[in-house]
Amino acid sequence: xxxxxxxxxxxxxxxxxxxxxxxxxxxxxxxxxxxxxxxxxxxxxxxxxxxxxxxxxxxxxxxxxxxxxxxxxxxxxxxxxxxxxxxxxxxxxxxxxxxxxxxxxxxxxxxxxxxxxxxxxxxxxxxxxxxxxxxxxxxxxxxxxxxxxxxxxxxxxxxxxxxxxxxxxxxxxxxxxxxxxxxxxxxxxxxxxxxxxxxxxxxxxxxxxxxxxxxxxxxxxxxxxxxxxxxxxxxxxxxxxxxxxxxxxxxxxxxxxxxxxxxxxxxxxxxxxxxxxxxxxxxxxxxxxxxxxxxxxxxxxxxxxxxxxxxxxxxxxxxxxxxxxxxxxxxxxxxxxxxxxxxxxxxxxxxxxxxxxxxxxxxxxxxxxxxxxxxxxxxxxxxxxxxxxxxxxxxxxxxxxxxxxxxxxxxxxxxxxxxxxxxxxxxxxxxxxxxxxxxxxxxxxxxxxxxxxxxxxxxxxxxxxxxxxxxxxxxxxxxxxxxxxxxxxxxxxxxxxxxxxxxxx
Length: 505
Known about the structure:
CATH topology of the largest domain: Transferase(Phosphotransferase), domain 1
Protein name: EKC/KEOPS complex subunit BUD32
Oligomer: single chain
Organism: Pseudoneurospora amorphoporcata
Helix content: 25-40%
Radius of gyration: 24 Å
Domain Protein kinase: 142-505
Subunit structure: Component of the EKC/KEOPS complex composed of at least BUD32, CGI121, GON7, KAE1 and PCC1; the whole complex dimerizes.
Largest sheet: 7 strands, antiparallel
EC number: 2.7.11.1
CATH architecture of the largest domain: Orthogonal Bundle
CATH superfamily of the largest domain: Transferase(Phosphotransferase) domain 1
Strand content: 15-25%
């Protein structure tokens, strides 16, 4: 491993936050072990991205006996040279090591956007009025753990805003455009833009590289994403992509580009279809809040959930925008005095889609798997009702899982084996089947049996929402689809259920 110079003193505790380059060494070169060795390397890289969430890419290598392969991991996947023999190609080996040791911050993939001064972190960007603005970063609120992902990372600021860094799909409408449209349409309950800056793209980072056919691992499972998985795939969203992996090719002599990067060369036909371009941007929004999973009492949970649903209604009905990624990380608890009276708001429109717009062309099925609606898991077009279903799953998750960690457990411990585990493990179709069974009365009763006793008073609300979203048909089966007619009826029914439950607390 290569570490930053300040951490190489004797007695220093080495941490992933200080790693520059990571490698995996094996005594022998066995092609049959490639997948196992590669996955071990990706674990190291994943930990680096976890501790350096705004890093743009990571250099890595495999050294198996005398065979070496150089890798680069970014938010679209991983790509490499072929294996070469370090004895037969000693000059190449030396150039790689010298390159790793002498790279500047940009060539190393380190964050160069966040500045540091007197121990404080800050960024410089223009606000919505075009004025240059210095924004001091406070604590990190959230960072996404997967390698191949949006890599979303959020910080609070000194002036009660949130700074969000993310690698959004280049095939989706940028979040800043959705937020601008929402403001224009006078949508309520959705965060507003303070400032925005486009930093770079995967296409720019991989500029003038050429890629051969990607290596793929075959997956089991019968969900729409499991046909094949390339080596850059992350399981966080359960959707594989055909991003580039092995046998990358040439890079031009770009200024300050390292020798080791120049080694990554092999002639083949270039194609952007081998990987999905992502746009790295910084977005400052207001107001700041706490994610819903940090609720401290039942009333706060229910009021925040209710108001977030009101925000979704305004976004969809007034703004003509469908959110499509309802999860605990995208619902925040807010101070109504600075949030237009809302005690809960919606954030993160990266996955949002304007009504009546065509397919985006992006590769992921949208959503966070534990909270995806049953029909979305079955690859049926996403509707507003599916987002309302996701809100319900968030409520159940907060009561049955998160509450045990928020001081509601009393003298009891959380169940070791939970029904909720079936919402995380398996193919899309398996999870959809599990959820469908859980949405019958008997299934929901099993879920509510995992609530701490202090959450028993939420049970009637859960049963009422279940009846609204999943009514039985004449044959005793639950209805999973989106009802025709005025969408406000479904919103108002659920909001009324929350209001009644809150009034009884």
